[in-house]
Amino acid sequence: MSRNGYYGPYGGMFIPEILYPAFHELQATFTEIQQDAVFWQSYQESLANFSGRPTPLTYAARLTEYFGGPRIYLKREDLNHSGAHKLNNALGQAMLAKRMKKTRIIAETGAGQHGVATAIVAAKFGLHVTVYMGSEDIERQYANVFWMKRFGAEVIPVEAGSRTLKDAINEALRDWASNFETTHYVLGTASGPHPFPALVAFFQSIIGKEAREQILQLEGKLPKRVYACVGGGSNALGVFQAFMPDEAVELIGIEAGGEGPTTGKHAARLAYGQGRIGIAQGYKSFFLQNEDGQMVDTYSIAAGLDYTGVSPVLAHLAEQGRVRIEAATNEEVLQALQLVMVREGIVPALESAHAFAGAFREIQQCSQNDCVIINLSGRGDKDIFTIAEGLGDEGWKAFIQRKNTQYQHACSGDSGKA
Ligand SMILES: *Cc1c(COP(=O)(O)O)cnc(C)c1O
């Protein structure tokens, strides 16, 4: 990881002057903890006790049999507390906040997963917590808003712009500018201004550290390939970093192909060659933008991949050819998800199902003597409505109708049982 915050031409720290002290303090503390083995040790212990780490590396026997190719292993980030890799970063940054003697943390959230993880660690460490979320996203993802509030978070709706993730990030930065003496900003993915890409990748590196050790123990050799889905880039960098020096290990990131490359309805900033270099939200990278440089609305069946920018670290690794970036469409993703469920008894998150779809498509390229790792970034319980709709489940409509009726009865003071 670079020290000055640049990865080739990407990255940097494009922030208003008023935020300089906050970023300098954060950078200094980050440098400190990177050299402090005791910090990493207590981070690991905290995750072991609270989140069940290390997560297993599961041999997917029936998927392997189905394809008749390489042995397939799944890194089980879905088994983390709160169901995804996001807690690794939120917990690490809460410990960092404590070390900097902050009493409050703030976060942006899009789909709400990072907001929930941040609310959880705030409750665990006794910190005040405010989460910024676009009002459009609040409506789309209310279940997560509900959980954040129950964990004691203040959720502030953002009405600016398209009322989604990028607007929430701007609002969180504004809050930080006026409150950094008491407040740490827990950014949720490996993008944003320096040092966030490096900081988030640092905490998520625990995924790859474990996976590398586990595969060596189970197989006695390194995997031929490692697959991960790419939203902002944190779970991908989390699993990739440990394998980066092993040049024979191919690293493949899968972006959200949405409805496909010609539809404009996707979030593939790199794979479709449609993202353009720009500076937004404090960093330089590839963004999906129009001719005038305005960010365009992205679309994916997976809310967590639905973002206009991508980690500057990944942009650079892709350009260097160290990481290959592909995309999977919504349709491929639903098929892959269904296959994983019936062959392995596991529900991947729609985000993670992109990694499966990308891997399945080209799995025949590897031989039976190879093994591959797919990073299962999270579990799919949260996606129940979207999966049901995507797969066109009929019984589901009746179920929803019944719930609506019950709700209307409850609102009118009727028990609904008559
Ligand atoms: C948020 C999320 C992602 C995408 O974020 P990255 O920073 O790219 O990892 C992927 N999978 C799951 C389950 C998520 O919740």
How would you summarize what this structure contains?
By secondary structure, the chain is an alpha/beta fold. The protein contains 15 helices and 14 strands.
What is the global morphology?
A: globular
Report the total helices.
15
Bound molecules: pyridoxal-5'-phosphate
Strand line-up across the major sheet:
3-4-14-9-10-13
* Stretches with pLDDT under 50, minimum 5 residues: none
* CATH classification, class level of the largest domain: Alpha Beta
- Gross CATH architecture of the largest domain: 3-Layer(aba) Sandwich
Seen as an oligomer or otherwise, the chain set is single chain
- pLDDT averaged over residues: 95
* Total count of domains: 2
SSE series: EEHHEHEHEHEHHEHEHEHEEEHEHHEHH
State the secondary-structure class: alpha/beta
Beta-strand percent range: 15-25%
Per the CATH scheme, the topology name of the largest domain is: Rossmann fold
From the N-terminal CA to the C-terminal CA, the straight-line distance is: 64 Å
Helix content: 40-55%
Integer-rounded radius of gyration? 21 Å
Major sheet size, sense and barrel closure = 6 strands, mixed
Strand runs, count: 14
Subunit structure: Tetramer of two alpha and two beta chains.
Function: The beta subunit is responsible for the synthesis of L-tryptophan from indole and L-serine.
Modified residues (N6-(pyridoxal phosphate)lysine): 86
Family: Belongs to the TrpB family.
